[in-house]
Amino acid sequence: MFKKSIFLFLLLICFGSIKSQITNFKEKFTLPNNVNETSGLLFFDGKIITHNDSGGEPNLYEIDSLTGSLLRTIAINNASNIDWEAITEDETHIYIGDIGNNSGNRQDLCIYKILKTDYEKNTTVDAEKISFSYEDQTDFTSKPNNTNFDAEAIIFHENALLIFSKNWINFQTNVYKIPTSIGSYSATKVSSANIGGLITDATIHNNNIMLCGYDTSAIPFLIYISNERNSGDAVFNANFEKYSLINELEQGSQIEGITSFGNGRYYISREAVNNSFVTLDQKLFEFSDARTQSLSIQKIGESKFTCYPNPVVDKITLNSDQKIILISFFDILGKVVLDKKNPDKTIDISSLSKGTYFLKIKFYNNKSIFKKVIKH
């Protein structure tokens, strides 16, 4: 029997974090002077990668995540930094977004694509180029800080690149999609939301999306988009949550980069600011968000198990390094709704109603692990 105490424990793990917000926010270190205009952030191979924005050298800067010291400078030979604003990755490549467009008049927007293997082995690399324009932009008149076709955030999502716009006119955000292959494209608008501010970067972890930016009062904020949303590119099809950083950072802090560096842990970077209102150094900060942690209570050394897709519609695929002798599906009340002994790799769950389920996976050695699955 599935004991009530275990079920309540799972319920706490899977739903208790709904009320939780940003925790353990703290300053990590001052960034090197080479990146006083840090504008994008990526955690790769245990190190931090960042770059400067408009007018900087076409370089990536690799920083020690413990000490903040500059480890390497990697030059992109065949690229120019017109306005580098974002960096992201897929399994094999790093993508650098030359997508800043404060005046709305650029017709040379692009994303540079470099092999991770080249990056790891060299201090100078060549890039491939993905060019694009926005499908709904027809006016290219220069209008500084008065355009809805600026952007500073990209993520890799479902085998494509998503670009989050920085709308100076209406303070909303549009999401555009382009392929990852080399070519010239019309970026398709796939989602939109009234976020009440200017988005400056994005990252994705466990299919949870975290955005950063600042509002019209120069107050920095974070936006959380849960992985419990409909599949596809319309990422704002679920409600988002906005979290002000006014208690953690000074008003006027220009948060420019964000990246995940562990299970539910994040770095954000602030560029140096020196104006008549405030003077701030370039800094790296870190924080945690339990909502984005993996929900499995599997321990290190136990059976390795994953199931996908999640959310799922009809069929779920099991991937395990050990033989499964029983898999049980429980509804949120703890009632068994489906049992499979010695299950096949793919299980048809089309008969189940839409909702949240807990999976208990029992292995031949009598050890068990638990997963949460969303059925659409």
What CATH calls the topology of the largest domain is Tachylectin-2, Chain A
Into how many domains do the coordinates divide?
2
Could you say what the CATH architecture of the largest domain is?
5 Propeller
Task: Please tally the β strands and state the result.
Answer: 30
SS-derived structural category: mainly beta
Class of the largest domain, according to the CATH hierarchy?
Answer: Mainly Beta
Rg? 22 Å
Shape: globular
Q: Give the overall average pLDDT.
A: 90
Number of alpha- plus pi-helical segments: 2
N→C terminal distance: 27 Å
Helix content, binned percent = under 10%
Strand order of the largest sheet: 6-7-8-10-14-13-12-11
Beta-strand residue fraction: over 45%
Q: Which spans have pLDDT < 50 for at least 5 consecutive residues? A: 12-20, 296-301
Note the main sheet: 8 strands, mixed
Description:
This protein is mainly beta and 376 residues long. The chain has two domains: 4-10 and 295-375, Immunoglobulin-like (Sandwich); 21-288, Tachylectin-2, Chain A. It has helices at 4-15, 116-121, and strands at residues 23-30, 38-44, 47-52, 59-64, 70-76, 86-89, 93-98, 110-115, 124-125, 128-134, 150-157, 160-166, 173-178, 183-193, 198-205, 208-214, 220-225, 240-244, 255-262, 265-270, 273-274, 279-280, 283-288, 305-308, 315-320, 324-330, 336-341, 346-348, 355-363, 368-375. The strands form seven sheets. An eight-stranded mixed β-sheet has the order 6-7-8-10-14-13-12-11. A hairpin with a 2-residue loop joins strand 15 (198-205) and strand 16. The longest helix is centred in the first third of the chain and has 12 residues, at 4-15. The radius of gyration is 22 Å and the shape is globular. The two termini are 27 Å apart. Mean pLDDT is 90; it is low at 12-20 and 296-301.
